[in-house]
């Protein structure tokens, strides 16, 4: 059966930048093994399979696969799929369109807002289905530094210290001093397997970040390495930014109010990505978190099985 798909570059308005994503528009009838094999064949950070929604008011159910395993939730597949479905549904319209869709992911329903504008890259943002929380577990700072080929003194800045955080997918967040340390680090997957803790039965992925960035509007600069997902380095990781929101709230002591931030990633890979993060704090607690970005379609095709 022929199955149509598109590839989008996500968290960018520029083709051949951002994080590429494959979206299969007819994933119904595929087994878990079929979807995993197709994701391995596509060999992108994530591949999405769109299926009919179980709730009549929801837009679709989506399954998200890395080359190695399925994820319950991820940011760039959510943004890219929301945009892909909206552009497909309104392909014959040239006026400005704002719409809301709900995607059913394994983590639960995810509400997305989408903006379509003629001549511009489309934009989507979603509400986090669950806020970020920290796992209480010891972290061997020297072992983590060795896995990143960094001096242990380069780990941490201000109040930020390494720790495992999750808003659906756990990451070991590793703050480092500055952009120079970010540029110089070399990730060693064998040392990482010894240094990083297991969480929910799986090796945690590395999300390394520092304050600032190359882009003048960047609040933080990040890199992500996920050997357990079959991803050597990821150009943009919305699920990690979701986890980071909890660390920013705690370590920066965010006051009540709205906090817009921009996270850049993928710079060292030559695929710069820009992730919009909005944290609303009320009563000294995180009340709402939104993540968004643009995406551009770069290819479409048919898979013949």
UniProtKB/TrEMBL annotation:
Entries under InterPro entries matching the protein: Phenazine_PhzF-like
Family stated for the protein in its record: Belongs to the PhzF family.
Organism: Peteryoungia desertarenae
Protein name: PhzF family phenazine biosynthesis protein
NCBIfam families, sorted: PhzF_family (TIGR00654)
Domain of life: Bacteria
């Amino acid at each position: 059966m022929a199955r149509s798909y598109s590839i989008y570059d996500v968290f960018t308005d520029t083709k051949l930048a951002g994080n590429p994503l494959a979206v299969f528009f007819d994933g119904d009838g595929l087994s878990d093994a079929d979807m995993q094999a197709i994701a391995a064949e596509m060999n992108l950070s994530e591949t999405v399979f769109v299926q009919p929604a179980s709730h009549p008011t929801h837009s679709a159910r989506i399954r998200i696969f890395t080359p190695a395993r399925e994820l319950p939730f991820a940011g760039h597949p959510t943004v890219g799929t929301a945009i892909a479905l909206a552009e497909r549904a309104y392909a014959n319209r040239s006026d400005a369109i704002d719409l809301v869709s709900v995607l059913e992911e394994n983590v639960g329903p995810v509400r997305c807002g989408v903006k379509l504008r003629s001549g511009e890259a489309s934009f989507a943002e979603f509400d986090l289905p669950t806020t970020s929380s920290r796992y209480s577990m010891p972290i061997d700072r020297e072992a983590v530094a060795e896995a990143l080929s960094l001096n242990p003194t380069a780990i941490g800045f201000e109040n930020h210290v390494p720790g495992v955080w999750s808003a659906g997918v756990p990451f070991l967040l590793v703050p480092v001093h500055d952009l120079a340390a970010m540029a110089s680090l070399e990730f060693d997957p064998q040392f990482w397997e010894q240094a990083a803790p297991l969480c929910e039965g799986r090796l945690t992925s590395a999300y390394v970040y520092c304050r600032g960035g190359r882009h003048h509007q960047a609040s933080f600069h990040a890199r992500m390495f996920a050997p357990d997902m079959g991803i050597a380095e990821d150009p943009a990781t919305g699920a990690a930014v979701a986890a980071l929101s909890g660390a920013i709230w705690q370590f920066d002591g965010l006051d009540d109010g709205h906090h817009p931030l921009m996270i850049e990633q993928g710079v060292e890979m030559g695929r710069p990505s820009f992730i919009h993060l909005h944290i609303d704090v009320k009563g000294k607690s995180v009340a709402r978190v939104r993540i968004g970005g643009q995406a551009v379609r770069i290819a479409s095709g048919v898979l013949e099985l």
